[in-house]
Amino acid sequence: MDLKKLKKFIKFMNDNNLSELEIEEGKQRIRLKKYESQKPQVSYQQAPEKTEAETKKEKDENLIEIKSPMVGTFYRSPSPGAKPYAEVGKAVGEEDVICIVEAMKVMNEVKAETNGKIAQILVEDGQPVEFGQTLFTVHP
After folding, report:
1. Does the first or last residue of the chain, that is N or C, have fewer Cβ atoms within 10 Å of its Cβ?
2. Residue-number span of the structural domain to which 20 is assigned
3. Low-confidence ranges of the chain (pLDDT < 70)
4. What distance in Å separates the CA atoms of residue 86 and residue 76, rounded to the nearest whole number?
């Protein structure tokens, strides 16, 4: 990503009083996030390429997807340094809390709503999530 473009995006954030900005251009994705009394942080990642075999394997496993019920920030544990709610391989029940999605300073518990074992955790702790984004996959 070009440094001039980054500076334009940061200026755009400041001019419009935005605290967060995410832009996708092809396979490149950039997220700028400004915390109170701090300069914007920049994170950059190249979208991973999935092979046909990987895509087919995921579909063949009949995994249940647990999706985010809202836009917010994903947290694996109830507080920093605490034990995560869910780990890969851990058995979960319908009423088990598996993560928290924070939206507008409100911590919302997300329940598994299915019985099974956690197969994958698809989101990093502290990462912004979208409504309907898959957070976990579960073996029934």
Report:
1. C
2. 3-46
3. 1, 35-61
4. 7
Q: How far apart are CA 108 and CA 100, in angstroms?
A: 5
Instruction: Give pLDDT tens digits for 15-47.
Output: 888 888 888 877 778 888 876 655 556 666 666
Distance CA 135, CA 97 (A): 13
Q: Report the C-alpha dihedral over residues 114, 92, 126, 69, rounded to 10 degrees.
A: 20
User: In Å, how far from its chain's centre is CA 73?
Assistant: 7
Residues 20 and 89 grouped into a single domain: no
* C-alpha to C-alpha distance for 70 and 67, rounded to whole angstroms: 9
Give me the number of domains the chain comprises: 2
Alpha-carbon gap, residue 73 to 129, rounded angstroms: 6
Q: What share of the chain is helix, strand, coil (3-state, %, to 5)?
A: 15, 40, 45
pTM score above 0.90: no
